[in-house]
Specification:
Layout: H1 40-68, H2 75-79, H3 83-105, H4 120-148, H5 152-156, H6 159-166, H7 172-202, H8 205-219, H9 229-246, H10 250-267
Helix pairs in contact: 1-3, 1-7, 3-7, 4-9, 4-10, 7-8, 7-10, 8-9, 9-10
Length: about 280
C-alpha cells in the first residue's frame, strides 16, 4: 500500500453496508398521540369496534340485571341500587382495556392514547387548575344560556333532582371512588382514544377536539337536561386542550373527578349520601 507525503492512503473510501441482525424497529415518534404508525382507516375501524363493544356490553349488562331480578325491575329499585353505577364503571374499564389492546396491536404505545404517567405528580397539580377552569367555564356558559333563553332557568331546576336520583345512597368514600373511576374511563375513552383517533382520521386537531367535545356533551343527554350538553361540550373541549398540551390524560382525570365532586357538593348529595340505618 502506497502512502502519500502525509502518511495517508490515496485510495478512495468506499462505504460498505454491514448486515444487522433482526428487523430494524422504526424510532418512536416525538409525539405518540399523532398515531403515525396507524393508518387512517385503522383509526376509524378502532372507533367502530369500540362503539360496537360498548353497545354490546350495555345490552348484556341490562339483560343480565333484569334477569337476575326475575324480569321485574321497578324504577325505584334502580334508583336505590348501587349496582347500575358499579356496572357502568366496570363497562367503562373493560372498554379502556379493549382500546389499549387495539392500540398495542397497531404497534402504538399506551402514551399514544394519553396513558402517560411520567409526570403524574405535576399533572395532578395541573388537575386542580383544570377543575377550576371547568367550573368557571360551566358557570359562564350557563349564564350565557340564561341570557339567550330566559325560560331555560325554570327547566334547569329539574336537573339537580335527575342527578340525585341517578346516585343512590352510599358511603361517601365509595361514591368518591366510583366518581374517580368514572373520570378515568371517560377521559381515557373520550379524550385519549376518541380525540386522538379522530385527529388521525381527519388530520386536524381542531376538528377532532370540537367533535369529541360535542359527543361528550351529547352522551349526558340521557341522564341530564338536554341543554346541559352545551356546557359539558365546552368543558370537554377544555379538557382536550389540556390533554394535548400535557400529552397525558392525568390532569384531565384529576380535573374531571374534582369537577364532578364539586357539583355533588353543591347539590348536597356528597354530604348526605350515606344510607340511613
Amino acid at each position: 500500500m502506497e502512502l502519500n507525503e502525509f502518511g495517508h492512503n490515496d485510495a478512495p473510501f468506499i462505504p460498505v453496508a454491514t448486515p444487522i441482525d433482526g428487523p430494524v424497529e422504526p424510532p418512536e415518534p416525538s409525539d405518540p398521540m399523532l398515531l403515525e404508525r396507524m393508518s387512517r382507516a385503522r383509526a376509524m375501524a378502532h372507533l367502530a369496534i369500540l362503539t360496537v363493544v360498548f353497545v354490546a356490553l350495555q345490552v348484556v349488562v341490562i339483560v343480565g340485571f333484569v334477569v337476575s331480578k326475575g324480569g321485574n325491575v321497578s324504577e325505584e329499585e334502580l334508583t336505590k341500587s348501587v349496582v347500575p353505577l358499579v356496572i357502568t364503571v366496570a363497562v367503562g374499564l373493560v372498554l379502556v382495556f379493549c382500546a389499549l389492546g387495539l392500540t398495542w396491536n397497531a404497534s402504538c404505545s399506551a402514551a399514544s392514547i394519553g396513558l402517560s404517567f411520567s409526570r403524574w405528580h405535576i399533572d395532578c397539580l395541573w388537575g386542580i387548575v383544570v377543575a377550576v377552569a371547568s367550573q368557571v367555564a360551566f358557570f359562564v356558559t350557563m349564564m350565557v344560556i340564561f341570557v339567550i333563553w330566559p325560560g331555560m332557568r325554570e327547566q334547569m331546576e329539574a336537573n339537580p333532582d335527575r342527578i340525585s336520583e341517578m346516585l343512590p345512597p352510599m358511603h361517601p368514600a365509595l361514591l368518591v371512588g366510583l366518581i374517580a373511576l368514572v373520570a378515568f374511563w371517560e377521559e381515557a375513552i373520550f379524550r385519549g382514544v376518541l380525540v386522538t383517533h379522530l385527529r388521525r382520521a381527519t388530520g386536524n386537531w381542531i376538528v377532532a377536539t370540537l367533535v369529541g367535545g360535542c359527543l361528550f356533551g351529547a352522551m349526558h343527554i340521557n341522564i341530564q337536561e338536554p341543554i346541559m350538553a352545551v356546557p359539558l361540550a365546552v368543558i370537554g373541549v377544555i379538557w382536550t386542550l389540556f390533554m394535548i398540551w400535557r400529552r397525558s390524560i392525568v390532569a384531565c382525570v384529576v380535573g374531571h373527578a374534582l369537577f364532578n365532586l364539586g357539583q355533588l357538593f353543591m347539590l348536597g348529595h356528597l354530604t348526605n349520601s350515606a344510607p340511613t340505618p
